[in-house]
Design a protein that fits this description.
The structure is a single chain. The chain is an alpha+beta fold and about 250 residues long. The chain has helices spanning about 1-20, 25-30, 40-55, 105-120, 135-145, 145-155, 165-190, 195-200, 215-245; strands spanning about 35, 60, 70-75, 85-90, 95-100, 130, 250. The radius of gyration is 24 Å and the shape is elongated.
Length: about 250
């Protein structure tokens, strides 16, 4: 059993490396989306704030603008996750630039398309389509079966996710289940009640499988951890998607 446990740990570390590679500092050099807009930062800022308030007013201005003129971030109750900056294109240019950053590549692209359609009055791509509503009960129900299934439902035809976002999110939940539930299962199996010499002499039946272990409840507790976390993520994903869908914007997938 120790050989199996070591193999399990090796697989988890190898999978972790592959999973975290796309989100390492190498790819972060290219993160973020930008939109150039005619007009000074003050005027553009007013239009941006009006748009943010229309989508969800639960955001705030951050004084740490990192060289830009304005910066806005979501509060924890806001289902979106963003850093949005407003600044000048250049010292001598009268025009402005908006930069969008988010942990998810999909959200960065989504915000860019929204800003282009709202502030630049740019027509969506010819292959862009409006969004259909998603349902909390479906997302949460799938989460009880598997957090990966819930991620798959929320990412399908949603601008909040890129293909990479979907892969990373599903991989993280798979990894959690492997580490937590898999580890708890192996621990429970290693600690099955052992028969003593008298039980062997009397041919007493021993513990049949891992579920006879007093530690088997730990497997269910471990599975509940990832599902509890995903329950919150699923609420955010569904809420953000539906908030975006109600305005009739179209997105290219």
């Amino acid at each position: 059993m120790s050989f199996i446990f070591k193999g399990f740990i090796s697989f988890v570390f190898y999978f972790s490396f592959l999973l975290l590679l796309p989100t390492s500092g190498i790819s972060s050099l290219f993160a973020g989306e930008t939109v150039e807009i005619l007009g000074g930062p003050e005027d553009v800022n007013l239009r941006l704030v009006a748009l943010l308030n229309k989508l969800d007013p639960d955001f705030y201005a951050d004084e740490k603008t990192q060289g830009f003129v304005y910066r806005y971030r979501n509060r924890w109750k806001n289902p979106y996750d963003f850093n949005i900056y407003v600044g000048k294109v250049g010292k001598t240019s009268p025009d402005s630039i908006i930069r969008i950053e988010s942990p998810r590549r999909g959200q960065e692209r989504m915000w860019k398309e929204i800003l282009e359609q709202e502030l630049l009055q740019k027509a969506p791509h010819e292959s862009a389509v409006p969004l259909s509503e998603k349902y909390h009960v479906v997302s949460q129900g799938l989460n009880l079966i598997s957090p990966m299934a819930s991620v798959g439902y929320n990412s399908w035809n949603s601008p909040l996710f890129s293909n990479r976002d979907t892969f990373v999110s599903m991989g993280i939940y798979l990894l959690w289940d492997l580490i937590l539930a898999g580890g708890a299962y192996l621990y429970a199996q290693e600690n099955l009640p052992k028969k003593n010499i008298w039980d062997n002499m009397a041919n007493v039946k021993g513990a049949g499988n891992v579920w006879d272990s007093p530690n088997a409840v730990g497997v269910f507790a471990a599975l509940a951890v990832s599902r509890a976390v995903r329950a919150f993520d699923a609420w955010e994903d569904t809420s953000a998607h539906n908030k975006t869908a109600q305005f009739g914007w179209s997105f290219k997938f």
